[in-house]
Amino acid sequence: MKWTKRNIIIALVIVAIIILIYINRVNVKKAITSGIQSVLSIQQESYLSDLHPAVRDKFRQFINEVQQKTGYTIIVTSGYRSFQKQAQLYAENNKNAPPGGSPHNYGLALDINAQKGTTWLRKASTENAWLSSGIIDIADRMGLRWGGRFNGYPDRVHFDMMKFYNITQLKNLALQQFGSLENAQGNQINLV
Q: pLDDT tens-digit profile of 110-122?
């Protein structure tokens, strides 16, 4: 390659950029992390805003408290789920709840992962890992039910408000208000 004046200038600019990035690597890392957090916030908010209005703020409070008191970053992976989506999940794995049988169908549940440093809490994480994180203590104190205590099919990423509601009553309300489960918007039912 022939080194023209233009090529030399481009090479110097690239070297200068690399040096600036190296010198400011902490700030660059913070900017990248901040950008990732922004994207996560937008995704999180879309899950939270689809929850039933009666529980939306309680779940926001839960996430904020977990992040402040435990140092874990919460990543919401599922929230409100339509009856059609629930039918699809049930068809894929009959250990999942049938349509109308999940608190997700009414916007009363979240599935989360949690991350602190190199530690991740996910569905496959042990019960002890979740319990020792402090997250379950916060959920219990706030009246949330933890799926890690489900009999037969522990769902450690699942948190819901079913201590206050009965799935049969919710299903009946959806049927009364929408005529059928196919038409139901579970996160919009009138809770009595």
A: 999 999 999 999 9
Q: How many CB atoms lie within 10 A of CB 164?
A: 14
Domain with 159 in it: what CATH number?
A: 3.30.1380.10
**Tell me: the pLDDT tens digits for 17-72?**
887 777 776 665 665 555 555 445 777 888 999 999 999 999 999 999 999 999 99
Beta-carbon count within 10 A of 158 CB = 22
Question: Could you tell me the pTM of the whole model?
Answer: 0.78
- Provide the residue count of the chain: 192
- Six-digit token string for 147: 């799926």
In a domain, 57, yes or no: yes
At residue 75, the 3 state secondary structure works out as strand
Domain that residue 97 falls in: 50-188
Separation of alpha carbons 74 and 62, rounded Å? 10
Residue 170 near residue 106 (C-beta atoms within 8 A) = yes
